[in-house]
Amino acid sequence: MEAAADQGVPGGNGEALTPPPPLPLGVRLQVGGLTVAIDAVERRDGTVNRCLYSVIDRLLSARANPRPDSSGVRSYDFTVDASRGIWARVFAPVAAAAPLPVIVYYHGGGFALFSPAIGPFNGVCRRFCSQIGAVVVSVNYRLAPEHRYPAAYDDGVDALRFIDDAGAVPGLGDDVPVDLSSCFLAGESAGGNIVHHVANRWAAEHQPSAKSVRLAGIFPVQPYFGGEERTESELRLEGVAPVVNLQRSDFSWKAFLPVGATRDHPAAHVTDENAELAEAFPPTMVVVGGFDPLQDWQRRYADVLRRKGKKVQVAEYPDGFHGFYGFPELPDAGKVLQEMKAFLDSNRTARKSTTP
């Protein structure tokens, strides 16, 4: 979906900002509660009130459930590295007639908050499984500021290595075969940032010697990129768009980046010609929302991929706020999954067609 250029929506030619359609009451309450919780635990010095956070985490978390839900999706957890607290939650059908692609998922939360058990992320992964038709492995990585850059990237790569060494999704029975040569990475917000960096490192350092995992594509959904510059969309949507604002963004970078680093650090600023991309960097579908303050960074990211000769598709949703696809009540949330499925099917088919 492409954003209109001259209809008063973000990205137009300077016309007045048109507010998004009113959100359903349930979505407004969830978004409001989420932002209140974030502001309550994030301290100005770049630390997190973990005592309060642990209470909120318990309230928002869902347990894995080996019994299938109404859509036929079951879930369970497995450990990647207990010493670092790295684990993953698997979402899978009870059975499959043919090998399914695998989506390795990295949750959002500004690098400092949440886990695969948090309700919205748990729900997104269930919908990935049922509506896209994939086995989903949602990774729990270490959080900042206790574990700064590059901890989240290291954990993301190590989860892929763990699956590759096993030659399978751990704990998944023979009734659900998987195709690890059709492995995709997905994540929103900070998770979208992690998706990019994990994919780049995997393509450069691990893909040539991988036993079974082969990245067929990635889905950075409204990825968290940034820089010292305040972009037009960040300034225009400050105080207007929900979830993301300059204060919360600055907190995330302060918590995650090395002490003393600026927002032009390569982890954040993957939006200019200095971005280093591996030769085997996979095809990419970038999701952009018209009411996301980070949209300018996301479009620059897509432009960099194009200029460096990488295959990239941009899916734009003019009414989308940051994290909109996590709310199934919104029509665009379903449309995102349709576009993701089409991208997955296309790239999986293309990869299979080149296999002798």
Automatic annotation (TrEMBL):
Domain of life: Eukaryota
Entry GO MF terms: hydrolase activity
Region (Disordered): 1-22
InterPro entries: AB_hydrolase_3, AB_hydrolase_fold, Carboxylest/Gibb_receptor
Ranges where the Alpha/beta hydrolase fold-3 domain occurs: 103-325
Cited PANTHER family: ARYLACETAMIDE DEACETYLASE, OS07G0643700 PROTEIN
Protein name: Alpha/beta hydrolase fold-3 domain-containing protein
